[in-house]
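Quick one: HypC/HybG/HupF family hydrogenase formation chaperone from Mycolicibacterium mucogenicum DSM 44124, structure tokens please.
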Amino acid sequence: MCLGIPGQVIQMLDGYGNQLALVDVAGEARKVNVGMLPEETFTAGDWVIIHMGFALEKTDAAGAAAALAGLKLVGNGDWTEP
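--- reply ---
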């Protein structure tokens, strides 16, 4: 299991083979590698799910909110075992 953190693309960074984006993650600007998603294009405002500095998937605002809700749920320990 991996935890994916949502972030919103601020801008694509010049160079780096078009594989590096500046992404807002919880109010902090982070460099994120989007090279694992070569079929996608990214522009300011797009949402991504990030793990260890890599974008694992492109999503929308609803998907980002769901990912954040899941992280909060796990962080609060508000879950039950199956």
